Amino acid sequence: MPGPRLLTWRRLVAVTLAKSLLVGLLGLAAWGALPALIGWHPTTVSSGSMMPRLHVGDIAVSRPLGSQVPPLTSVLLFDDPDHPGRLRMHRLVRIDDDGLLVTRGDANNADDSTPVALAAVRGIGTLRVPWVALPVVWVRQGQWLPLALVVAGLALLLAVAASGRDR
Questions:
Q1: H/E/C letters for each residue in 93-107?
Q2: Residue 95: closest CA among 110, 75, 80, 115
Q3: Which residues, 6+ apart, have CB-to-CB distance to 115 below 8 Å?
Q4: Which three-class secondary structure state does DSSP give residue 13?
Q5: Considering the entire predicted model, what is its pTM?
Q6: Cα–Cα distance list, 118 to 49, 54, 60 (Å)
Q7: Which of 1, 2, 36, 136 is the most core-located residue (most Cβ within 10 A)?
Q8: What is the pLDDT of residues 102-122, one digit of tens each?
Q9: Distance between the two ends of the chain, CA-based, in angstroms?
């Protein structure tokens, strides 16, 4: 049986690791949410059309573009012309003869079927925060097991981190 000093060190290491993980997770969440305070647009990536650059569950943050024409190869967030009320984030591949933006997902073999007007662009992709929004995706898709495991893991981290307060 380990001595009291070894148990104290193990507990110290466990509490420190738990607190570090929680701070890291909070930091990632802040990176995904705080840009909204300055008018940027955080978006949950919900499909694999931009793989390998953007993964399902990432938060992609876009900054406003204004009336500027975006540079070719920019990743744009825009009103989805094929699904009113939804957003799409794809790469600008060219500007057609009518001045419309032709886009394509990095994982797709063909350009998007409907070009986009510059007025529909909400922003240009600026920041990727990995995996933070996976629980949001799981809720939308009804994937309860991974969500429950993450919630249980967070509860365990909180319990271990809080256990350091009584001494």
A1: EEECCCCCEEEECCC
A2: 115
A3: 81, 96, 98, 100, 101, 102, 103
A4: helix
A5: 0.84
A6: 21, 23, 20
A7: 136
A8: 999 999 999 999 999 999 999
A9: 22
